[in-house]
Amino acid sequence: MTQHAWLLLGLYLAALLLLVKPLGAYIVQVTEGRLGFAGRIEGTVFRLCGIHRDEEMGWPRYALAIILFNALGLVAVYALQSLQLWLPLNPQALANVTPDSAFNTAVSFVTNTNWQGYGGEATMSYLTQMLGLTVQNFLSAATGIVVVIALIRGFVRHTAAGIGNAWIDLFRVTVWLLLPLSLVFALFLASQGVIQNFAAYQEVTTLEGSTQTLAMGPVASQEAIKMIGTNGGGFFNANSAHPYENPTPLTNFLQMLAIFLIPGALCFVFGRLVGDMRQGWTVFAAMAVLFVAFEVPAMIFEQQGNPLVEKVGAGETAMSTTALLDGNLEGKETRFGIADSALFATITTAASCGAVNAMHDSFTPLGGMVPLVLMQLGEVVFGGVGSGLYGILVFALLAVFIAGLMIGRTPEYLGKKIEAHEMKMTSIAILVTPLLVLLGTAVAVMTEAGRAGIANPGAHGLTEILYALSSVANNNGSAFAGLSANTPFYNGLLAVAMWFGRFGVIVPVLAMAGSLAAKKRIPVSAGTLPTHGPLFVALLIGVVLLVGLLNYVPALALGPVVEHLTLWSTK
Amino acid sequence: MRTLIRPAISLFLLLSALIGLLYPAVVTGVAQTVFPAAANGSLIVKDGKPIGSELIGQNFTAPKYFWGRPSATAPMPYNAAASSGSNLGPLNPALVDAATDRAAALRAADPDNTRPIPVELLTASASGLDPHISPAAAEFQAERIARARQIDTQRVRQLVAQHTVGRELGMLGEPRVNVLKLNLELDARP
Prior knowledge:
The structure holds two protein chains of two kinds. Chain A is mostly helical. Helix content of chain A is about 65%, strand content about 0%. In chain A, α6 (about 125-155) packs parallel to α8. The model of chain A has no long low-confidence stretch (mean pLDDT about 95). In chain B, a hairpin with a 2-residue loop joins β1 and β2. In chain B, α4 packs antiparallel against α5 and α5 (about 155-165) crosses α6 (about 180-190). In chain B, about 50% of the residues are buried. At the A-B interface, α1, α2, α3, α6 and α7 of A face α1, β2, α3, β3 and α4 of B.
């Protein structure tokens, strides 16, 4: 790893650490309803919408509200795509999207996955991008955040029937948190060259005399929430590699920062709300250690390059100048090079973002395995907004359970006894995604329609399918994009995996929130296992890795590991 | 259940209007007023006509121009209406074949140059629209351009140096040269 790559990683972590506390403190104000200026507006809105300010919801009602709200999004995004030719703001007269692709995309954006079987600039009208996709970028992010807030309330409250009011939580997070952040970030991006207009595609005559058509659109407003909400669905096919989405190394750095911003701050929120900051920092520390442990190999393997390509360019004399860019540059942009691309790939898959500034399909075998494994761990390394924290808290419950078995005591976490019901929900939440990934991959490789999508021969083909299923079931959305997934088979299979990968976790988490909130708080005693400090950090990391490895090692051995060995033996 | 439907629908419609229409409209309004050039694509205008964008690369094949990164967009390279990478895996024979073709074209255009070819001139960019190459990739081509234009190589190197941008804050990104702007400069000041 080069010195520059270390510096970049250090700068990134320092900037993140600096922002986590102030933003976390603000999020507490938002979710606790303590914003002074908000009261009047909220009063009017809630009256208009038939929302009762004092209503506390039990977990089934909270979950139903969330699912209903997301189902409306599903209908809206599907309808906008299916009718876009006849709706305004479609200067390129882009056709209505086919039913299977529209369904896949609707599920994808509602579940915060943002898997894209289509190429944005050739498929979606400006209205679809704004009123369909941008809206879901906000609302799916808000959904993740309110679910984790409800879970935290489960720990904080005792002998309580309710875990909050879903409508009020959704409104506050969307309007007071996501909207202002996005507005500021969008304007900054636009100042740096991210386009923001409603013009038709621009035709230019190039220097060598041919015609080039420049895709246009309201990109900056979508780009901002795409990163802040860990959504990741690009306005353009090339996503954050496209110069109109991500024009400079500075915008790239801020986009990377935006991905971890809220997931990092939520650790602070967690500590603050449960009244013990050490709990929040413990979770943060476990995430940070895992993050660095995965980032470094990605950087090293990409910097190492592809020996087969390097052989082609061999010359008789030495390379003459400094400022040489080397490493595996297939599918990478010059302005980002290796360091910014490998870092971005690690961040986007540690979180459930899925935006890419380089093409993961062309990564070296082990460099590309890093994003794959990070998704398979359940995206708990900072993770998606909300989903990362509730994901790792589920692992924390498993960790105290295992530790409880080892020391022969009833496990407890944050003053709540962890009993059979919680462990059942924990098991469902942890096992639902590996089940979807492994079964889905098996179905795809066993069927003609599944194998037909493979673009690259050999072990890499298996990895493409495994990556797709890992990405959708964990609601990431990045791809080994060689896979031709815009077919009825993949649109259907992946949509199912996205839906259950999202709500198959959210519902058990909310059920757990409900049962935890109803419990009495038990005082700390000599027998209580402390859930803060280095020992628990190590335990938590161990549990996350153990579950991940047990699930996926065989599949990984057949994919990226075989490919790595082949690549370096054919050298 | 019924008591959930009214809040669900009304909140959904309200938030959709706010973040799906008003928010993009406000961003557009401010961006078009405060930084219109950037918001409209950073276009380069020559004699009243847009000839490209400084952020979007163009396809160059003439020996007198610097060539940018290979582009894997379809149906033609640097198709800015359908951005794409190659998505070729590291062991895919098509990856080595494409690199071999690109190497052959570079060698044919400049037979005397026996130095190793920088990897970025053999590999397709992620977007297929990459506007930049590294200073090393420019240096590799400098002699060819000088010969094709019958100017001094030092003059070409000087222009490359003038158009080289370093890392932002000394840490972000990579040193790079904007190929289109460099080629425009070569045409304007021979």
